[in-house]
Design goal:
Layout: E1 7-8, H1 9-15, H2 21-29, E2 33-35, E3 38-39, E4 46-47, E5 53-55, E6 58-59, E7 67-72, E8 101-103, E9 111-117, H3 120-127, E10 135-141, H4 147-155, E11 157-159, E12 162-164, E13 168-171, E14 176-181, H5 188-195, E15 200-208, E16 211-212, E17 221-223, H6 226-232, H7 240-251, E18 263-264, E19 278-280, E20 287-290
Parallel strand pairs: 9-15
Antiparallel strand pairs: 1-4, 2-3, 2-5, 5-6, 7-9, 7-17, 8-9, 10-14, 10-15, 11-12, 13-14, 15-16, 16-18, 19-20
Helix pairs in contact: 1-2
């Protein structure tokens, strides 16, 4: 069998809902998987149509790919089982979603947009650091953050010799901030605030890629269509829509998220040439305003006649 035939074993297992590719790699390497009655220890082994695959003695088969968005509430951990006995997201998800795995994590005290899927390729595209998929959050701190500390969020905060930084930071109110990350390290936002002497009182994820949470109800879920799934993998080119949604969220403290319908942010608009009737200066390159077609108004005061001596 050539290397191009069949499906990689870890990808096949992920499509069966066994777990993420990384988790499937561990299952294979630990000897829990067999194909046609023979143990297989290589996650890159190719599975052909008609192969009989078992995990821990039970046959697994490819399931239809499903992807849903879920508003994770506070107080639940992103795990199937918790060694400390805490409630997990799977205790509140219906049985038809139990085979889906979460893409990334939100810690127990955080809430907001979480993607659940059995599509291993999608998980890889959203989580791999090289893809730089944006995640946007609304963060409430216990006290106002100094401007110089907000600058450090952009340049980098060192936590245990590891540099953590945000792509964008925007002050919404005295204690509320809009933060955009491209790579999410464990408890990154909370660690950055704590290192600079602040505590996060509330953290809500409101966007992944171009998919926004909007006013989606807490604890609710719904399947995503192909357009929305594609939007997860793209970053918005127009920032204004996300900023408006974030500002609206900050103004309504009683609400979980902005009163914006969940959906997809617009892509970049086509570039236009310079508008007629606008002057541009080499210093700023910005328009200085419309130029009137009428002559400029003259001063009403007349010059005093020269005095003769």
């Amino acid at each position: 069998m050539s290397a191009d035939e069949g499906t990689r074993l870890n990808k096949f297992l992920a499509s069966c809902g066994v777990g993420s590719r990384r988790a499937c790699d561990a299952l294979v390497q630990d000897g829990h998987v067999e194909i046609n009655g023979k143990p297989v220890l290589n996650p890159a082994h190719r599975v052909e149509p008609g192969d009989f695959v078992k995990v821990n003695g039970k046959r697994v088969q490819t399931k239809q790919t499903n992807t849903v968005m879920f508003y994770k509430p506070r107080g639940y951990v992103c795990s199937r089982e918790d060694e400390l006995g805490r409630d997990t997201i799977y205790t509140i998800l219906p049985p038809i979603l139990q085979h889906l795995h979460h893409v990334g994590r939100l810690d127990r005290d955080s809430e907001g947009l979480l993607i659940l899927t059995n599509d291993g390729d999608l998980s890889q595209q959203l989580m791999h650091p090289s893809k730089l998929v944006e995640k946007e959050y609304i963060v409430t701190a216990n006290q106002p953050v100094l401007n110089e500390h907000l600058d450090l969020f952009l340049s980098g905060v060192y936590v245990e010799k590891q540099r953590m930084r945000a792509k964008e930071v925007q002050r919404l109110t005295s204690r509320r901030y809009r933060i955009v990350l491209e790579t999410g390290l464990k408890r990154q936002i909370r660690q950055m605030f704590l290192t600079l002497g602040y505590q996060v009182q509330k953290l809500v994820r409101i966007r992944i890629g171009r998919l926004i949470l909007g006013d989606f109800p807490e604890g609710a879920w719904r399947p995503l269509d192909p357009i929305e799934i594609a939007a997860l993998k793209e970053n918005p080119k127009v920032r204004s829509a996300a900023k408006k949604a974030a500002k609206k969220t900050a103004k309504k403290a009683a609400k979980k998220t902005a009163k914006t319908a969940p959906g997809v942010l617009p892509t970049a608009r086509p570039k236009r040439g310079p508008k007629e009737g606008r002057k541009r200066t080499p210093e700023s390159g910005r328009a200085k305003g419309p130029v009137s077609s009428r002559p400029m108004a003259r001063k009403s005061a007349k010059r005093a006649p020269k005095r003769k001596f």
